[in-house]
Amino acid sequence: MVTANKKGKKSGQKTSDKRKNEKHARRERELEDLKELAQRVQDFDPESATLFDELPLSQPTVVGLKQSHFTTLTSIQKRAIPLALKGKDVLGAAKTGSGKTLAFLIPLLECLYCNQWAQFDGLGALVISPTRELAIQIFDVLRKIGRAHSFSAGLVIGGKDVQVERDRISRLNILVGTPGRVLQHMDQAAGFDTGNLKMLILDEADRILDMGFKKTVDAIVQHLPKERQTLLFSATQTKSVADLARLSLSSTTAEYISAHEKAQSSTPKNLQQYYVVSPLPEKLDTLFGFLKTHLKSKVIVFASSSKQVRFMFETFKTLHPGIPLMHLHGRQKQAARIDVTDRFSESKYACLFCTDIVARGIDFPAVDWVVQVDAPEDADTYIHRVGRTARFESNGRALMMLTPSEEEGMIERLKSKRVPIEKITIKENKKKSIRQDLQNLCFKNPDIKYLGQKAFASYCKSIYIQKDKSIFKFSELPAQEFAESLGLPGAPRIKFLGNQKTKQLKNTVQIKDSESEDSDHEKEGRQVRTKYDRMFERQNQGVLSQHYLNMIKDDSASADPVDDEDNEDFMTVKRQNHLLSGSDTEDEEDEEEIADASTINADNAKLKVTTTGPLVGLDGAPVSKRQAKAALSKKAMLKFKSNPTKLIFDDEGKPHALYEFENEEDFKKSGDAEKQIKEFVGKESERMKEIDAVDKAQVRERRKEKKLKMKERAAAAAAAESEISEASEEESEVEEPAPAKRPRKWFEDDDSEDEVARKKSRNAIEVEQPQTLEDLEALSLRLLGNH
């Protein structure tokens, strides 16, 4: 037994040693393979490669590419991947649909593989996308080509459960997300560590680096280590030194790659691009006619705002153009956005109304047409929009609708970006007017009308905030016609215009004459504005006051208005204007402003006020026009009163101040204080006695009148009772006459009523109440026999 145990221990030790040797040998081979792979990367010539198999890639990456059916390299992949594999920062620009996603995902996997990244090493690569849909698409491609690797990857975007993402984010090696959600986890997730990050990737970098994501990107970069590799890819790349500095890049060492820098066009060669000039009120008619003639196509329709997308989707869905309709915009919930994206990708024929959230990077297969109902904000946005079709060497067509004011400027911008585009005209028989249908929808459905109002306001705002004012001219918008084309009865009120005007008024600098050392000439050139000046400068503020002044003006009118046929003011009330005290300078300035006739605009209606002669006060002094206006307003009258006081009036109507005081000297001149008090008390006592005597006399008179009235009422009551008693005695003495005999009716006999009653009584039969059936039979026989 001892020998057997020793043999077992020896065999187990040999097995463990063998495993250690195999593990060590495998480790040595992996290190040799990594060294060999690094040498291949350094010696690789990108000009000779055309397939993914020819690239210096690891075996798991090659397996993932083969199983995902990626074989041939595109131009951007051929130039960007070798540089990224060498660890250089890359700024890549290529046409839409040229395979930029693989150009940064393959270096990402190779970077982590070469660094032998394990599960507990933390976050190794971060991919940031401007939109949720693009982030989802990048994550799906990463799962396909990285299926043979052992890295853990995750997707964090808005609309998902934050707590679920927070619990798992600390165990991720690769993270794909949108800027807002990534920053949220950096600030809130306790286990989210980015100190070991090796690679930062920004897809659609020009959109991420613009003002919309500026603060978010700056905050994210502050959490990342400076020693890292950064890749930026987009269809229209930025070279701004400020943007590169924000990402800790050097404009001299970063490699800039442009796959279409020497190309004749910035868009794919197999993309046919057209534009049509259409007035703004006719755009929906043109779009509806286009869909009716392309029922067997897959179409993407771009609009400038989500409210326009919603309005077009709801109205066209009711009008039934004959093609499946979908809509996608940023105000939808994430589940709905994913569902629409999947359904449109799987559809063969469909129309998708969307905003610019679909313009970048989204790969919808087999899109036939891209229609831009609203012009893009710039040429770069146009390139991204039309890039949804003609992807990966497939054919595609694009149509852009421009208003007459947008045509010249937009075409110049596109030509400067090497975008070939052709102008076409739509046949009149292909157009279909839907204005009447939209009016009926807005009349019947308040929700459609509400969406139309919001679509109108959002389009006007999108034009108003555009940077290029030479193309987008807000002042030339046909607002009324555009509102009618949406089915609205009139142009809705645009609230943001009112806010802009208010801000401009608040930001206006008012000049105040507050410096005492200024010269008189400088003071005369300045203007001190008060709230009363602004009040009197308001439009229509003097319509009624001017009319009232003409009514009360004292002129030499005819004494007998009937004799003067031309006098139309015979009902005028003749009154005098009050005399107002004002400065001479104001009167002189106001006299120059007085005109013989003035026209005032009151709510688009003209009211003509004619004055004949100067205005005068009670004493004949001239009164300025400003003073006459101020006389009609209590607030305006305050500036003519230096210290307004309150008056009280006595019984005689004489005014007195609320408190009348004498000076101390005047009081002493009147005599001794005690003497004055006694005199005042004596006078008041005598006055009170006189008043008391008068009050007592009045009371006695009232009592006498009351007693007389009581005696008169008692005498009147006694007389009425005596008259009633005499009348009752006279009635008792008179005999009552016999009642008159009732006249005989035509069907009655001459017999009296008593005889008729006796006859009736003789014919009557008196019976008892029958108790049994026999009693009832006897009664019936008796009645029959009597009859």
Structure, explained:
This protein is an alpha/beta fold and 787 residues long. Among the domains are: 216 residues, Rossmann fold (3-Layer(aba) Sandwich), CATH 3.40.50.300; 215 residues, Rossmann fold (3-Layer(aba) Sandwich), CATH 3.40.50; 91 residues, no CATH class. Helix content is 47%, strand content 11%. The protein has 29 helices and 20 strands. Strands 3-4-2-5-6-1-7 form a 7-stranded parallel sheet, sandwiched between helices. Helix 3 packs parallel to helix 4, helix 12 packs antiparallel against helix 17 and helix 16 crosses helix 17. It starts with a helix and ends with a helix.
Going by CATH, the homologous superfamily of the domain at 43-258 would be: P-loop containing nucleotide triphosphate hydrolases
How many distinct helices? Answer: 29
- Under CATH, the topology of the domain at 43-258 can be stated as Rossmann fold
Average pLDDT reading: 78
- The shape is elongated
List the helices and strands and how they pair.
Blueprint: H1 2-43, H2 59-67, H3 75-85, E1 90-93, H4 100-114, E2 125-128, H5 132-145, E3 153-156, H6 162-168, E4 174-177, H7 179-188, E5 199-203, H8 205-208, H9 214-223, E6 229-234, H10 241-246, E7 255-258, E8 271-277, H11 283-292, E9 298-302, H12 306-319, E10 325-328, H13 334-346, E11 350-354, E12 369-372, H14 379-386, E13 396-402, H15 404-416, E14 422-423, H16 435-444, H17 446-464, H18 479-485, H19 495-507, H20 520-525, H21 531-536, H22 543-552, H23 584-593, E15 597-602, E16 605-610, E17 615-616, E18 622-623, H24 625-630, H25 634-637, E19 647-649, E20 655-657, H26 664-669, H27 673-733, H28 753-763, H29 773-786
Parallel strand pairs: 1-6, 1-7, 2-4, 2-5, 3-4, 5-6, 8-13, 8-14, 9-11, 9-12, 10-11, 12-13
Antiparallel strand pairs: 15-16, 17-18, 19-20
Helix pairs in contact: 3-4, 4-5, 7-9, 12-17, 16-17
